[in-house]
Design brief:
Elements: E1 7-8, H1 13-18, E2 23-24, E3 28-33, H2 39-52, E4 57-61, H3 66-75, E5 83-87, H4 92-95, H5 111-125, E6 129-133, H6 135-142, H7 145-160, E7 165-170, H8 181-186, E8 189-196, E9 204-212, E10 222-227, E11 230-234, H9 256-261, E12 271-277, H10 282-295, E13 299-304, H11 309-318, H12 323-328, E14 332-336, H13 344-356, E15 360-366, H14 368-373, H15 378-394, E16 398-405, E17 424-433, E18 436-446, E19 456-461, E20 464-470, E21 474-475, E22 483-484
Parallel strand pairs: 3-7, 3-8, 4-5, 4-6, 6-7, 12-16, 12-17, 13-14, 13-15, 15-16
Antiparallel strand pairs: 1-2, 8-9, 9-10, 10-11, 17-18, 18-19, 19-20, 21-22
Helix pairs in contact: 13-15
């Protein structure tokens, strides 16, 4: 019977989640990526986790000096105390003091002597974790690709007889920037880090596990950032298998006329798309539902891409929604999101944390235009949004998506056609009547059940949100240029 190997933590909670626990111990792994992708930082996190567990660890560097590594560690608030550092900063360590250092460079040294010194240091220290940085220098020392591969194979065989978990770092510069398939076949697992430069904003980083023998890891790309304290990995959100039992009841807004439009309100575990032009009241409508949920003691979260948080709070308080009080007692969280600074994977991870760690039951995304700005490729946005909404649905979370449209009257368009993903669609339109600009509200879609098909007037003023009688004496309201044909009945006026 084959026993499963013990698992060692990488020191990164998000990465361990992708690995579904960590790396099988006593194996050889390849950590590859272009310069600046975060390989050294992840390698140091891996070793520092071993130091915290009382394990002897070794960092072998052919590319960076001890001073450079100290600088990296200092930037994250780390100390390298406990990490045994073996650097080839001069040829004296490889060839002895008899060679002239100013003439003979490190990459001209014999590869065999380099490997011998490494083995001697490993035999003396007997580390549990080892990082070898980097293979590009070994390629330069070998000169010949066949000789290089033989030496890597010899290293693998050498480490195989010892209780060591090894990370081989490769910056891909020595291979013309391309992956070495031969090296992939030698290693037990391969992790690739990528650094992507967009037209605007900071660089985006992501990782994927190319292979990991005997481990049911989470495949695909996973976004990550490098911040003070190391890498923050955001595992790709997978909705399947995450169902949580909940009661599928209607969620009320506290305004009977508004609730009647959906015959009770949106159902738990559904998403509602609120669409309309700028200034029509889309966000305000969602805030009404948030305030009602907070009054019931539920936890809510608003992700604000467009409006300033202080402006949002002031506006809500002026309508008597008491957002200041809900923020103080922890029932409401408002996160200001900068689409240029956040990746879709990080946003999904934030949502997941709010739901699983904080117990959030209602989420507002304001707006989809801001979320679209964080995703250069629209098709990926649709897929990610669909997965996110599926996840929230399985947890019984009520989601409101604010979808701005272009134009004020007549035909209007949107940057993103996501109406088929949402369970309910609320449409707000401007129309002109009696010399005034007015608003109309209607329900276009409600998967959870029946809904009212009437077009009603919507008014938002100092009294809050009001829904009037059906606009039965008009036709063409949704075109923005209605035609009046009924009796002389006044519309809603300000109280």
């Amino acid at each position: 019977m084959v026993r499963s190997r013990p698992i060692v933590s990488t020191g990164n909670p998000g990465f361990d989640t992708v690995l579904k626990g960590g790396l099988p111990s006593n194996r050889l792994y390849l950590l590859e990526g272009t310069p600046g992708s975060g390989k050294t930082t992840l390698g140091l996190q891996f070793l520092l986790t071993g130091v915290a567990a009382g394990e002897p660890v070794l960092y072998i560097t052919l590319s960076e000096t001890a001073e450079e590594l100290e600088s990296v560690a200092h930037s994250h608030g780390w100390s390298l105390d406990g990490i045994n550092l073996f650097e080839f900063a001069s040829t004296a360590e490889v060839l002895g003091e008899s060679y002239e250092q100013s003439i003979l460079h490190p990459w001209e040294a014999e590869l065999g002597n380099t490997i011998r010194l490494i083995q001697e240091r490993v035999d003396a220290l007997q580390p549990k974790r080892l990082v070898f940085d980097s293979l590009s220098e070994m390629r330069l020392l070998a000169q010949d690709p066949l000789r290089y591969r033989r030496q890597v194979l010899a290293l693998k065989q050498y480490f195989a007889g010892r209780d060591i978990t090894v990370l081989l770092v490769d910056d891909l510069t020595g291979a013309g920037g391309e992956q070495d398939n031969h090296l992939h076949s030698l290693c037990h697992g391969v992790v690739t880090l990528e650094r992507l430069t967009l037209d605007f904003g900071p660089a985006r980083r992501r990782l994927q596990i190319q292979k990991l023998r005997g481990v049911d890891f989470t495949a695909g790309f996973h976004d990550f950032t490098i911040r003070k304290g190391g890498l923050e990995v955001y595992p790709r959100l997978i909705a399947a298998g995450r169902h949580v039992e909940f009661t599928g009841e209607a969620v009320k807004s506290g305004i009977p006329e508004l609730d009647n439009l959906l015959f009770g309100g949106p159902m738990r575990g559904t998403s509602t798309l609120v669409s309309g032009p700028a200034g029509a009241g889309k966000t305000t409508l969602a805030l009404v539902y948030v305030a009602a949920a907070c009054r019931r003691g539920e936890r809510c979260t608003i992700y604000e891409f467009d409006e300033r948080v202080t402006t949002l709070i002031s506006r809500a308080d002026s309508m008597g929604l008491n957002f200041t009080g809900f923020l103080e007692n922890g029932l409401l969280v408002i996160q200001q999101i900068d689409p240029a600074e956040i990746s879709p994977g990080e946003f999904a991870w934030r949502v997941r944390s709010e739901v699983e760690d904080r117990g959030c039951t209602m989420i507002v995304v304001d707006s989809l235009n801001g979320y679209l700005a964080a995703m250069p490729q629209e098709q990926q946005l649709i897929l990610q949004m669909h997965e996110l909404l599926s996840y929230l649905s399985q947890h019984g979370v009520v989601t409101f998506l604010i979808n701005p449209q272009h134009g004020l009257l007549g035909s209007m368009a949107t940057n993103l056609d996501i109406s088929y993903v949402a369970d309910s669609v609320i449409l707000i339109r401007f129309f002109e009547a009696q010399g005034r600009l007015r608003k109309a509200i209607s329900i276009l879609k409600h998967r959870a059940g029946a809904h009212e098909d009437a077009i009603r007037e919507l008014r938002i003023d100092s009294q809050g949100v009001r829904v009037g009688e059906p606009l039965s004496d008009f036709r063409g309201v949704l075109t923005g240029t209605p035609e009046y044909f009924g009796a002389d009945r006044p519309l809603m006026e300000e109280r």
